[in-house]
Amino acid sequence: MSRAIPTRGAFLSGQQGSLFATPLPRSAHANDVSDKMAALREHFTLCGLLTAAEHRTTEILGVEAAGEPDRVLVTDSVQAVTLYKVSDQKPLGSWAVKQGQSITCPAVWNYQCGEFVVVHDDKVLRIWREDDVNLDTAFKATLSADVCRIHTLPGADPLVLFRGGAVHSIDSLLAAPQQEIESVLPVGERIVWSEIFADEGQPLVVYITEQLSDYFVYIHQFSPVCVCKYLLKPNTEGSTILDCSGSMKSKIFTLLTLYSCGQVCQAPFPVSSINQESERVVSASPLLQLSGPIEGGALKFLDESHVAVLVPSAAKQKDCLSVWNTTFQTLAAVSEFSQKTSAQPIVFQLWCCGSRLYVPHGKALLAVPYSCEVSCLASVLGKSRNLQPSVLEKIPLVNWDTLVGKDPEAKQPRKQSKERKTNGNAGNSTECTVYPLDVQNIPQSQTEALVQRLLLGKGDTDFQVTVGKITQSLVRRCMADPKFYPQSSLVQLVQTNTLSYSLCPELLPLCLGKRDVRLLQLCLHSFPDVPEAILCSCLKAFLSVSEQWMNAAQIDSHSAAAYIDVGDQTKEPKRTEQPEGPRVVQNGFSPNAQQQEESSDELIEESLPQTGQRATCPMSIRRAVLVNSVLMSPYSESFLLPHLKDLSGEQVMFLLRYLQYLHLKCIGNVTGNLPGKHVPTVSQVVDWMSLLLDAHFATVVMLSDAKALLNKIQKIVKSQLKFYSELNKIEGCLAELKEPKCPSVSPPGRYSIEVLQLY
Amino acid sequence: MGEFKVHRVRFFDYVPSGVRCMAYAEETSKLALARNDGSVEVLNFSSFYYQEKVIPGDESRSIESICWAAGNRLFTAGLNGEITEYDLEKLCVKYTLDAYGGPIWNIAANACNTHLAVSCEDGSVKLFIITSDHIRFEKNLDRQKGRLLCLAWHPLGTHIVTGSVNKIQVFNASSGHLQHVLKLDSRPLAGRKRECVVWSVAVLSSGHVISVDSSGKLLLWDLEKGTLIHTHSVANCDILSLAVSKAEDSLVVGTAEGVVFQFEHISLKTGESERQWVRTKPFRFHTHDVRAVAHSSTAIISGGVDGHLVIRPLMEKIEVKSYEAALRKITFPHHHLVSCAQKSGRLLFQFPEHLELWQLGKTDISGRDGDVLPVKKKQELLLKLKRKGTESIRCSCVSHCGSWISYTTSSQLYLHQLHCEKDNLSLRRVPRLPQLPSAPLKLLFSPDSKRLYVGSEGGCVHVLELSDGACKLGPTLQPPSETANRSLSSVHLMAVSINGTYLAVATPSSQIDIYNTHIMKHECSVPRYSCPPSALSIHPTTENLVIAYADQQLMEFNINQRQYTEWGRRVLKNGLHRDWLERDTPILGIRFNPSRPEDILMHDNYMFCVLDKSLPLPDDKTPLFNQITLKHLSERAQKSQAHAFKITKKFQPLMFMDLLSDGDLVLVERPISDIVANLPPPMKQKKFGT
Question: Is residue A33 part of a domain?
Answer without folding.
Answer: no
